[in-house]
């Protein structure tokens, strides 16, 4: 599969809670971790069984070298991960509370330099991929070019529209799987999602816009799915969360890996949920993403 998206260096501070506006808290630790939604999803898919190529940009700084190395260490093709001269790599400032909740602020850096032309250079990869995965931490123009290319060649498209922003109406019909959380569902569908019933309304609204299959993730509350293979709610595995960073990315990558292997929709969702559940039991972004062997050993299917 091909992932078109971001690579960031995560700068993570841990604290007892999340600060309110204007509040200063003392943290309990600091670490740097390779991250970014695109890179996280690529690594999740690779560790969970898929062959993956990444399309994106990093800076010519030390972070850029580290981010590329993190991808190649998981056997991801980085031929189309460009190092942009005189540009800093993207970074994410993350605060993680004791209960695993987090807040994230992203400075895009080189991610903002991903152009439609750089996507075109990977056109053959996209045309022959089993799936294209995109998010919105890179410019929408580049995402649209990737999706247009996939649609022309019959490559299935998975879009995780994060960070949330309104999408052009004509884009929805090109999306085979749209994965949204509660925040993204409200921005795109105008529905305040808090449970399965409201997730159902949001999913139906997004399908009415043209998305073929919609998955609304509800964290510990599971996921609602709706599409040609049916609709319903799937409960999430019950675990003790340590850090929810990259849980959504792990779900998306795991779901995609299973789907490309030919898994039915519900089986792919369950696989992604198991992967995400194991990830929240660990600290960090990419460091928390399990391999297929770890998942089968530590959180096997019921």
Automatic annotation (TrEMBL):
A Pfam family reported for this protein in Swiss-Prot or TrEMBL: PfkB
EC number(s) stated in the UniProt entry for this protein: 2.7.1.15
Cofactor entry: Mg(2+)
Active-site residues, as the UniProt record annotates them: 249
UniProt cross-references to InterPro entries, sorted A to Z: Carboh/pur_kinase_PfkB_CS, PfkB_dom, Ribo/fructo_kinase, Ribokinase, Ribokinase-like
Subcellular location: Cytoplasm
Carbohydrate kinase PfkB domain mapped to chain residues: 2-292
Keyword line: ATP-binding, Carbohydrate metabolism, Cytoplasm, Kinase, Magnesium, Metal-binding, Nucleotide-binding, Potassium, Transferase
Free-text remark on how the cofactor is bound: Requires a divalent cation, most likely magnesium in vivo, as an electrophilic catalyst to aid phosphoryl group transfer. It is the chelate of the metal and the nucleotide that is the actual substrate.
Database matches in HAMAP family: Ribokinase
Family affiliation: Belongs to the carbohydrate kinase pfkB family.
Subunit structure: Homodimer.
Described function: Catalyzes the phosphorylation of ribose at O-5 in a reaction requiring ATP and magnesium. The resulting D-ribose-5-phosphate can then be used either for sythesis of nucleotides, histidine, and tryptophan, or as a component of the pentose phosphate pathway.
Descriptive protein name: Ribokinase
Organism: Paraburkholderia panacisoli
């Amino acid at each position: 599969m091909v992932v078109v998206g971001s690579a960031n260096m995560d700068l993570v501070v841990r604290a007892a809670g999340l600060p309110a506006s204007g509040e200063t808290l003392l943290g309990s630790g600091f670490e740097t971790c390779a991250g970014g939604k695109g890179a996280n999803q690529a690594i999740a898919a690779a560790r969970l069984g898929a062959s993956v190529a990444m399309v994106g940009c990093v800076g010519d700084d030390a972070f850029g070298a580290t981010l590329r190395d993190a991808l190649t260490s998981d056997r991801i093709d980085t031929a189309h991960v460009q190092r942009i001269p005189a540009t800093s790599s993207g970074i994410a400032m993350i605060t993680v509370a004791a209960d695993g909740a987090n807040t994230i602020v992203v400075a895009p850096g080189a991610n903002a330099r991903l152009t439609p032309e750089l996507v075109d250079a990977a056109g053959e990869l996209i045309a022959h991929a089993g799936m294209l995965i995109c998010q919105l931490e890179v410019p929408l123009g580049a995402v649209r070019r990737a999706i247009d290319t996939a649609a022309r060649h019959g490559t299935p498209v998975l879009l995780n529209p994060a960070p949330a922003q309104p999408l052009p109406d004509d884009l929805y019909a090109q999306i085979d799987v749209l994965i949204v959380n509660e925040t993204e569902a409200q921005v795109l569908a105008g529905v305040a999602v808090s449970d399965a019933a409201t997730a159902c309304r949001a999913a139906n609204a997004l399908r009415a816009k043209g998305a073929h299959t919609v998955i609304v993730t509800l964290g510990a509350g599971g996921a609602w799915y709706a599409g040609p293979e049916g609709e319903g709610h799937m409960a999430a595995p019950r675990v003790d969360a340590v850090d929810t960073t990259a849980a959504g990315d792990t779900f998306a990558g795991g779901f995609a890996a299973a789907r490309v292997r030919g898994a039915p929709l519900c089986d792919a969702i369950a696989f992604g949920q198991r992967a995400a559940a194991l990830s929240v039991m660990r600290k960090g972004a990419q460091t928390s993403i399990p391999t297929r062997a770890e998942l089968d050993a530590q959180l096997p299917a019921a």
